[in-house]
């Protein structure tokens, strides 16, 4: 038996003897997704906030890395950061699970379709709330037995549809199930009051985000150089990313030698204002693209076909007018990154198949509309 599972048994036994004082209060929403997921969750979050009773607080539990996007949440939301990479460590797991139990929430809602029975669902069990809800989990051969056993953790379970369902629409349906409020599908956008102030540059500026944590989703530097060349000569370019992105992708450093091109390594909370002041964003399918979409800035996404039907492109009902997504349709679309085919020049075949002429045409069209 793995040590953390023994700890879970001990904590479970301890909870039977350690009764919490007073009535339960407050709502805990659990989201174990990444940065991009957190941006999209922000668009639906107000619907879940109505689950709180008068005077109750709402806490959103996020992965510690994804919490960098929590500035998009309404100000009344509390954020609890958890390092999921450490949740198998005895001391850290005991600390986090103990804190959740002592918080004594009235309602716990797990917002994820994709769940891990030993990590995020352990958080649900530790909270031991009298009410708890989740969607039926994504089917998993590896965890089928444990996920089925964990159904008893929830007082409500929602059947959210087939695996290939748009993530935001899935959340919206779940929120309607829990609240009883039938609302139109939410656009991938945020109200003006929740947007940071725009940082207006001295020259029209384009944000390029060519980097992805999954390198197979990246288009080659040659394509990005063509994009830069298609811009008006007086426009400036910011190559956005984490400073380590250039170390991991040294072939992109030559783009910084082009006129009016500089690197932009601002954290997301600051980058959001820079994006708002930009004339255009061109990005791979990554958190920066989702952020640009909700900021309302004209955005061109160079996507793979891996997440068609679930994440990118968004469903027609929720697609904001400022976003244009280019991807190459393939028979294997919607593979969620489990590509069946060998890479082509270090890319998913669907990324390698992106037509440079189509990309440049889209860039020129968006520049012309901006001008």
TrEMBL record:
Keywords: Glycosyltransferase, Transferase. GO terms for molecular function: ADP-heptose-lipopolysaccharide heptosyltransferase activity. GO terms for cellular component: cytosol. GO terms for biological process: lipopolysaccharide core region biosynthetic process. Pfam families: Glyco_transf_9 (PF01075). Transmembrane segments: none annotated. InterPro entries: Glyco_trans_9, LPS_LOS_Heptosyltrfase. This is Lipopolysaccharide core biosynthesis. The lineage of its organism: Bacteria, Pseudomonadati, Pseudomonadota, Alphaproteobacteria, Rhodospirillales. The gene is waaK.
């Amino acid at each position: 038996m793995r040590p953390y599972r023994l700890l879970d048994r001990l904590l479970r036994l301890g909870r039977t003897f350690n009764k919490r004082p007073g009535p339960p209060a407050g709502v805990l929403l659990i989201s174990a997704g990444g940065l991009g997921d957190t941006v999209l969750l922000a668009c639906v979050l107000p619907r879940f906030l109505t689950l709180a009773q008068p005077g109750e607080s709402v806490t959103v539990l996020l992965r510690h890395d994804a919490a960098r996007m929590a500035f998009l949440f309404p100000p009344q939301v509390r954020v609890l950061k958890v390092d999921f990479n450490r949740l198998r460590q005895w001391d850290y797991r005991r600390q986090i699970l103990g804190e959740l139990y002592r918080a004594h929430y009235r309602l716990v809602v797990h917002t994820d379709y994709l769940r891990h029975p030993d990590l995020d669902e352990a958080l649900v069990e530790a909270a031991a709330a009298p009410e708890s809800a989740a969607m039926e989990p994504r089917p998993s051969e590896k965890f089928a037995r444990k996920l089925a056993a964990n159904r008893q953790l929830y007082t409500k379970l929602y059947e959210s549809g087939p695996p290939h369902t748009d993530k935001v629409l899935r959340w919206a349906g779940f929120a309607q199930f829990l609240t009883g409020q039938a609302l139109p599908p939410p656009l991938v956008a945020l109200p003006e009051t929740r947007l940071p102030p725009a940082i207006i540059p001295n020259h029209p500026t384009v944000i390029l985000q060519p980097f992805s944590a999954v390198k197979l989703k990246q288009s080659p530097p040659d394509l990005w150089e063509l994009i830069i060349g298609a811009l008006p000569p007086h426009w400036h370019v910011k190559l956005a990313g984490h400073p380590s992105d250039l170390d991991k992708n040294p072939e992109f450093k030559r783009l910084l030698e082009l006129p009016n091109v500089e690197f932009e390594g601002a954290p997301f909370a600051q980058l959001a204002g820079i994006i708002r002041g930009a004339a255009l964003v061109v990005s791979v399918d990554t958190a920066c693209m989702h952020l640009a979409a909700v900021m309302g800035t004209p955005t061109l996404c160079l996507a793979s076909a891996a997440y068609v039907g679930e994440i990118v492109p968004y469903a027609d009902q929720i697609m904001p007018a400022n976003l244009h997504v280019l991807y190459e349709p393939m028979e294997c679309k919607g593979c969620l990154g489990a590509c069946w085919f060998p890479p082509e020049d270090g890319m998913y075949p669907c990324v390698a198949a992106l037509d440079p002429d189509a990309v440049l045409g889209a860039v020129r069209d968006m520049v012309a509309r901006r001008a």
